[in-house]
Specification:
The chain is of the alpha/beta class and 140 residues long. The chain is 33% helix and 28% strand. The protein folds into 2 domains: 44 residues; 84 residues, Nucleotidyltransferase, domain 5, CATH 3.30.420. The protein has 3 helices and 9 strands; from the N terminus they run E-E-H-E-E-E-E-H-E-H-E-E. The strands form 3 sheets. Strands 6-5-4-7-8 form a 5-stranded mixed beta sheet, covered by helices on one side. A two-stranded antiparallel sheet has the order 1-2. A hairpin with a 5-residue loop joins strand 4 and strand 5.
Length: 140
C-alpha cells in the first residue's frame, strides 16, 4: 500500500508529497509462491507408484529414459501410465519413440518374480529399446 505524507519545505512555505512503497506484502506473496512451488515440484518428480527397490552394493546414476514400474501387486506402469501385459509392447513402443534416449529402466518391487522381470525386459527389447537397466537403491 502506498502511503503519502506532506513534508514542509525548508523555507516553511511550500511542501511536497512524499510517497513510499511498502514491499512487505509483495515479499510475503513471493515467499508463499516459492513454498507452493517447492512442494508441488517435489510431488511431481515421482510420477509412478512407489516401489520398494532392491538394494545393490554398486549402483550408478544414469539418465533415465522410459521407466517401467512394477509394484507389489504386479501392476504395470509405463512412465507412470497404467498398462497391462497385453498392451505393454505398444505402450513401450510409443514411449520409446517419444523419448530422446532408447533406454528402458525397470523399477520393480522386491517381491516381483524373476519371470516377470525377464518378460518385461524382453518386451522392452522387442519394442526397440537399445539399453535396458534395472533400478536399485544403494546399500547403506
Amino acid at each position: 500500500m502506498a502511503v503519502g505524507r506532506w513534508r514542509e519545505g525548508d523555507d516553511g512555505e511550500g511542501g511536497e508529497i512524499v510517497a513510499e512503497i511498502n514491499i512487505t506484502p509483495l515479499t510475503d506473496i513471493f515467499l508463499v509462491l516459492l513454498i507452493i512451488f517447492m512442494v508441488t515440484s517435489s510431488a511431481m518428480v515421482e510420477s509412478g507408484p512407489s516401489v520398494s527397490l532392491p538394494e545393490s552394493g554398486s549402483t550408478s546414476s544414469e539418465s533415465k529414459g522410459v521407466v517401467v514400474t512394477v509394484d507389489d501387486t504386479e501392476s504395470l506402469f509405463v512412465d507412470g501410465t497404467p498398462t497391462d501385459r497385453e498392451t505393454l509392447r505398444m505402450a513401450l513402443q510409443s514411449a520409446i519413440a517419444q523419448s530422446d534416449s532408447k533406454r528402458v529402466v525397470l523399477e520393480g518391487d522386491r517381491s516381483v518374480i524373476l519371470a516377470d522381470v525377464v518378460y518385461i525386459l524382453d518386451e522392452a527389447r522387442n519394442a526397440g529399446a537399445s539399453e535396458v537397466a534395472i533400478a536399485a537403491t544403494r546399500k547403506q
